[in-house]
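Go through this fold for my students:
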Amino acid sequence: MPARIAVITDSSSCLPDLVAARWAIGVVQIQLNMGSHFDDENRFDRGKVIDTMRAGQMITTSPPDPGAFFWTYQEAAASGATAIVSVHLSGRMSDTVRAAREAAQQVRIPVHVLDSRTTGMSLGFAAIAAARAAANGGDAARVIEAAERRCFTGTEFIYVDTLEYLRRGGRIGAAQATLGTAFSIKPLLTVKDGEVAPLARVPGTRRALAKMVDLAVRKSGGFRVDIAVTRFGASDHELEIGRQIERRVSGMTESMVVEASAVIGAHLGPGALGITVSPVD
């Protein structure tokens, strides 16, 4: 009987439900704590999360309980999987990988837990690549290789509308947040060595978004790439960014506009936008 490899990821991958279903990717939900409400992030109304943040109330995040991973793995095994490749949010950002590894020890089939060292659609595209390799009959080693290659080569460019949410999360000081607001400085971020890292600071939204697009186009470099534009809360910018990228990136194989995970949005704030560039094998 040929091996059937199941692919699991977590909700920080930002995979739309239809895409996850198309590729039979299991998605374990990271948790949010908003006031007295603590639950899986997909059980929260996104509009209420954004309104709560804008009202100045703190929202915190927590990794999934190991039990959530255990039952997801058990369901995959019951559906006929002979092994599982489980690829997750960077261990430097969350204990999600640790929870997955704890659960993996309790499952009767092999579970290979990968620390993606990234997040967002860089993780999402890695999960899709792994699922595609599995659908094509690849064994566990081939599926792992496909996921790891995308994790290593994917790049996140992130625009933050305000520095305030970074301040609340302890990533910058109050003086920096005040300075940014006073001079309309917009930070661009990336993910480096498994952590969110500063990339540039640009005066004004339009200039910052234009620079982010330029960086994404330059990173594409004429190669075949998948690109995602990620938003946290609708704005006037994401569709135009998508159109610019379609015009300027000749080697784009797939493009999509997706909603950011509420867990990611809780740290970046409403109005955050991202561009993922993920080279295709």
